[in-house]
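> forwarded from #structure-qc
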């Protein structure tokens, strides 16, 4: 994989000092010319990171100490933990033997006893796995309108997000793709975070779920009960988060008490719809009064989501999708006419974004808006959007395959590129 491992290890300092994509590309081209695909590139960088942490483990200040639990030895043990974690990705299970050797070192702290105790109580809780990163992100979505696109050194692209609040339970759920800022490794996680009665915070993290599985777990979480089997995953409690994150969460809960998400359309919807879902689940006909009340609350919730979409609120499109999906599941149509003006404004804002930055993320946002509008039967915004998007295609060309998919979703027929259509420039 590496043409000269020792030379690559020594030269890796150039990447440590500059982790830009250009710097990484230069390094790999010189020292790992055979790493052409993403998997081999990630594996190469993981091996080098394992070496880096193995070297940092021998930092001299960590080996001259009068107590095993002081900050210096704890820090070098954190380096060791990362090296062991990376080694595990290559099939090497070294931790058990490492901890056995570590137990020979004695601590002056009675609660810790020895190196194994230090490892269990001071090191392991601070190891941040991929699921930890997802849990951190999920919990942040309970309180932020639009969270950061970074978690630790990972970049995050949220693919789906919705938030519900009713009966003292607030749930933030979605799916996101994470990219390690050091190795370039990518992974996807579905997440469900909640503030439960008595202000208890927890999150469930699992692999990417299909839409029906996602909606089933979201419904369970919103009701505070489990009727669907949990897929393989992990539950995180507040104590599983890093200490600074625990304090931030508790402070936020104390200050805000989630009042902004426990009113309006969300509260009305969560009062009416669960009862309808029970009637539907038992195969019973809906009483006319309940059906009409629920249709009104669904329309209210859709209008509210559309208004937030127009205001640029993060997650509003997925919130509207969730309302429509739940309505369809119980056989109710949603009166969408009231959402037309807000949806037109929101779509116009997305097209403004594309005017400034014709990029894949902006195209994905527009595609999601088109899909949800089709679900709702919203159409007044479409003619103006078709015209503007066609002009964007004339200007920018089909540099992204997604652009042609969006055009098709908008009903723009393009059997062949029109005259004057710019060809995609090479990347």
């Amino acid at each position: 994989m590496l043409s000269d491992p020792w030379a690559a290890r020594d030269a890796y300092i150039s990447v440590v000092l500059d982790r830009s994509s250009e710097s990484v590309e230069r390094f790999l081209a010189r020292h790992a010319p055979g790493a052409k695909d993403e998997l081999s590139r990630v594996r190469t960088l993981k091996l080098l990171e394992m070496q880096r942490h193995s070297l940092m483990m021998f930092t001299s200040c960590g080996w001259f100490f009068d107590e095993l639990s002081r900050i210096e030895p704890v820090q070098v043990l954190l380096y060791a933990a990362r090296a062991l974690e990376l080694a595990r990705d290559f099939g090497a299970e070294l931790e058990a033997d490492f901890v056995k050797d570590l137990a020979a070192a004695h601590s002056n702290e009675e609660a810790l006893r020895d190196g194994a105790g230090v490892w269990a109580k001071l090191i392991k809780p601070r190891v941040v796995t991929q699921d930890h990163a997802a849990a951190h992100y999920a919990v942040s979505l309970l309180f932020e309108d639009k969270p950061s696109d970074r978690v630790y050194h990972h970049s995050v692209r949220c693919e789906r997000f919705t938030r519900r609040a009713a009966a003292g339970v607030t749930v933030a759920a979605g799916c996101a793709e994470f990219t390690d800022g050091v190795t370039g490794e990518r992974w996807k996680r579905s997440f469900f975070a909640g503030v439960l009665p008595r202000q208890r915070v927890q999150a469930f993290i699992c692999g990417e779920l299909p839409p029906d599985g996602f909606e089933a777990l979201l419904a369970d979480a919103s009701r505070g009960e489990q009727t669907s089997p949990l897929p393989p995953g992990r539950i995180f409690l507040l104590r599983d988060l890093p200490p600074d994150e625990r304090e931030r969460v508790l402070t936020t809960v104390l200050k805000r008490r989630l009042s902004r998400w426990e009113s309006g359309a969300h509260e009305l919807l969560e009062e009416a719809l669960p009862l309808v879902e029970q009637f539907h689940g038992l195969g019973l006909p809906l009483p006319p009064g309940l059906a009409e009340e629920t249709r009104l609350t669904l329309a209210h919730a859709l209008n509210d989501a559309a208004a937030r979409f127009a205001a640029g609120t993060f997650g509003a499109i997925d919130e509207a999708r969730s309302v429509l999906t739940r309505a369809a599941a119980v056989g109710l149509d949603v009166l969408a006419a009231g959402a037309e003006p807000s949806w037109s404004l929101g779509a116009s804002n997305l097209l403004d974004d594309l005017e400034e930055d014709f990029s894949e993320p902006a195209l994905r946002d527009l595609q999601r808006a088109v899909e949800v509008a089709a679900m709702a039967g919203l159409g007044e915004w479409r003619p103006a959007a078709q015209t503007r998007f066609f002009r964007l295609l004339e200007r920018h060309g089909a540099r992204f395959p997604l652009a042609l998919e969006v055009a098709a979703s908008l009903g723009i027929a393009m059997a062949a590129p029109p005259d004057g259509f710019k060809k995609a420039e090479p990347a």
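QC bot note: The CA atoms of residues 151 and 240 lie 16 Å apart. The two ends are 27 Å apart (CA to CA).
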